[in-house]
Design brief:
The chain has 5 helices and 7 strands; from the N terminus they run ββαβαββαβαβα. Helix 3 runs antiparallel to helix 5. Strand 5, helix 3 and strand 6 form a beta-alpha-beta unit. It is of the alpha/beta class and 265 residues long.
Length: 265
């Protein structure tokens, strides 16, 4: 069993990545974190549970074990800011999404430690992700990458106001074929239960930007879902059965749309 991630290989062209589901913080790092940070509150809670149905539909799934507080798998390895000019969390985050410090005074990681974490956690995940996409492309002629995320809907340090329930990202149309973007947009436009936006505040993180290369046969779509759509947004963060049941048909329809996509010949 891989200690950094779990990978389920499916039978379709679709790979679902959930890079912020992990909650583990290694024992040798815990002393440097604040007590609050050890709770890993900025986790994309329960997404692996919400999308567990996708394996039965033929999708591949890759899920990390370690918290984004150790190293953020959806950031560039050179630590380039994801959204220049706005508040961002780093490759090895030093602040919560509310802006407070993650580390005790003087304990934030220096460059050598950052690079160690990249080598130990970031690179194995991305090597597996890239290899799976290459395998799917070889088998099916194309691959679709769905990068699944969730976040608290109101975080003034990161964005103004409240996020829509569903925040879809295709890097302004650059990470997938127009037909796939249009199909996803049509799916959300046809429902009235959840507010949504395409390529708004969250246009797609490093994974969507880096791997979404439709010209080479890899099509990527990101979803940043507000926690309120399926769970409690206040601690202790709990799965909300009724909300999850209500949103599941839409998530299943989204996955099916991604599965059904075929690029133009």
């Amino acid at each position: 069993m891989n200690t950094v991630y779990t990978l389920h290989s499916g039978t379709s062209p679709l790979l679902i990545s959930m890079p912020h589901v992990g909650t583990l913080i290694p024992a040798d790092l815990r002393d440097g974190f604040t007590e609050r940070a050890l709770q890993a509150e900025d986790t994309d809670w329960f997404l692996d549970r919400l999308f567990s149905f996708a394996a039965d539909l033929g999708a591949s799934l890759i899920v990390p074990r370690y918290s984004r507080y150790v190293v953020d798998l959806n950031r560039s390895p050179d630590n380039t800011p994801m959204y220049p000019g706005q508040n961002n969390t780093e490759l090895c985050p030093t602040r919560h999404f509310t802006g407070e410090a993650i580390y005790r005074p003087g304990r934030a990681p220096e460059e050598a430690e950052i690079q160690r974490r990249v080598a130990s956690y970031w690179r194995p995940y991305h090597a597996a992700l890239a290899a799976q996409l290459a395998q799917l492309k070889t088998q099916h002629g194309h691959a679709v990458l769905f990068d699944a995320h969730s976040i608290k809907g109101i975080l003034p340090w990161l964005f103004e106001g409240a996020l829509p329930d569903m925040n879809l990202g295709t890097v302004s149309g650059n990470s997938c074929a127009p037909a796939l973007r249009d199909g996803v947009a049509a799916l959300f436009a046809a429902q009235a239960g959840y507010s949504h936006v395409m390529d708004g505040r969250f246009k797609g993180g490093y994974i969507t930007r880096h791997y979404g290369t439709p010209g080479s046969g890899v099509h990527a779509v990101q979803l940043e879902m507000a926690w309120r759509a399926y769970m409690d947004e206040t601690p202790p963060y709990r799965w909300h059965g009724a909300k999850a049941a209500a949103v599941s048909p839409l998530m299943r329809a989204l996955v099916q749309t991604l599965l059904d996509f075929r690029p133009a010949a």
